[in-house]
Design brief:
The structure is a single chain. This protein has eight helices and ten strands. By secondary structure, it is α/β, with parallel strands linked by helices. It has one domain: Metal-dependent hydrolases (TIM Barrel), CATH 3.20.20. Helix 4 (124-144) runs parallel beside helix 6. The chain has a six-stranded parallel beta sheet with strand order 1-2-3-6-7-8. It has a two-stranded antiparallel ribbon with strand order 4-5. Helix 3 (83-90) links the parallel strand 2 (69-77) and strand 3 (97-101). 38% of the residues lie in helices and 20% in strands. The chain has helices at 15-24, 47-63, 83-90, 124-144, 155-163, 174-187, 204-215, 237-247; strands at 29-37, 69-77, 97-101, 104-107, 110-113, 149-150, 190-194, 221-224, 251-256, 259-264. The protein is globular. It binds zinc ion (2 copies). One zinc ion binds at residues 2, 4, 75, 226.
C-alpha cells in the first residue's frame, strides 16, 4: 500500500516498471503513493508530479484490470504546515487512497530533515525533545487533515535508532503514542506497518506500537514496503504478517476509492 515511482524525487523507476515488477512477483494489489510534501516555506514540493502520478496510476489501473489491482494513491507529507495546499492535493480526481506522514521537523527555529540530521552528536535532551515533538506533529497532522492511512508512525526512530544507533525507549513516550493510536482508532484511519528497512524482523519500537494499538482495540493495519525501486516491492511482508498474527491480528486492509477493504492475513 505504499510505493514510489519516478514521480517522486527519490523514486527509482517508472510507474509502468513498478507495476510490471509487482505483477511478475504475483502481488495482488499495488498502491502507487508518490510524495507530495509541504516544504519549509509552506509550499507543495510536487503538485505537478502528484497529478502526473495519479494520472499514470489510473491508466495502469485500466491496463491491469482483472489481473492485478492498481490503486492511485498519494503520500502527503507535513500536510499541517499548509492545510489548504495539502487538501488540494488530497482532492485530486481519482485518488483511491491518501497516506499522511510527517517527514520533517521544525523545532525551535531549526529544520530537521531526518535523512540529513546528525542525531549521533545531539545532546540526549534534544533527542528526547525531538521525539516528543515528532509525535505531537503527527497529532497535529491528524487534527488538521484526515488521511486514510497514517504512514510510518515510527519514522523518526528509524533514523535516530536505526541509522545513528542512539537508543530511544519508546515506552517513555507512551502518552503521546497512545494519543495518536486512540485518534486513528476513533477516526477509522488505518495504521501502516512500514517494512522499508525490515531485514529479518520488525524493529522493537514497531512491535511496541503494534501491541499497544492492538491492546487499545485497533485492527486496521496496512502493509507498506515504501518501495522506491522495483526490487523492494513487498519487502518484509512475510515477516511483518507473521509478527502481526503473533500479536493477534487476523486481517490487514487496503484502501480503494477512499474505502477500507479487509483481507485475511
Ligand atoms: Zn514517507
Ligand atoms: Zn513513502
Amino acid at each position: 500500500m505504499h510505493t514510489h515511482t519516478s514521480h517522486s524525487v527519490d523514486g527509482k523507476c517508472s510507474p509502468d516498471e513498478l507495476c510490471r515488477a509487482a505483477f511478475e512477483r504475483g502481488v495482488g494489489a499495488i498502491n502507487i503513493s508518490d510524495h507530495c510534501d509541504v516544504n519549509r516555506d509552506g509550499e507543495l514540493d510536487c503538485f505537478g508530479d502528484s497529478s502526473a502520478s495519479v494520472r499514470d496510476a489510473l491508466r495502469l489501473k485500466r491496463e491491469y484490470a482483472g489481473r492485478m489491482k492498481v490503486l492511485a494513491g498519494i503520500e502527503v507529507g507535513n500536510a499541517h504546515w499548509n492545510p489548504t495546499l495539502a487538501k488540494r492535493c488530497m482532492a485530486l480526481e481519482g485518488v483511491d487512497c491518501v497516506t499522511g506522514s510527517v517527514h520533517r521537523l521544525r523545532y525551535e527555529g531549526e529544520l530537521y530533515v531526518t535523512t540529513k540530521a546528525d542525531f549521533a552528536h545531539m545532546p540526549p535532551k534534544l533527542i528526547s525533545e525531538l521525539v516528543r515533538y515528532y509525535f505531537e506533529e503527527i497529532q497535529l497532522m491528524l487534527d488538521i487533515t484526515r488521511p486514510d492511512i497514517l504512514a510510518h508512525p515510527t519514522y523518526l526512530l528509524r533514523y535516530i535508532v536505526g541509522w545513528h544507533h542512539v537508543s530511544v525507549d519508546i515506552a517513555d513516550y507512551s502518552d503521546c503514542v497512545d494519543r495518536i493510536l486512540r485518534r486513528v482508532i476513533s477516526d477509522g484511519i488505518a495504521l501502516e506497518v512500514n517494512t522499508q528497512s525490515v531485514r529479518d524482523r520488525l524493529a522493537g519500537y514497531d512491535i511496541y506500537l503494534l501491541e499497544r494499538y492492538y491492546g487499545l482495540g485497533g485492527r486496521l493495519i496496512t502493509l507498506g514496503s515504501d518501495a522506491h525501486s522495483a526490487d523492494r516491492i513487498a519487502n518484509g511482508f512475510e515477516i511483518a504478517a507473521s509478527e502481526l498474527r503473533r500479536i493477534g491480528f487476523s486481517s490487514a486492509c487496503y484502501i480503494e476509492n477512499r474505502a477500507i477493504k479487509s483481507y485475511k492475513l
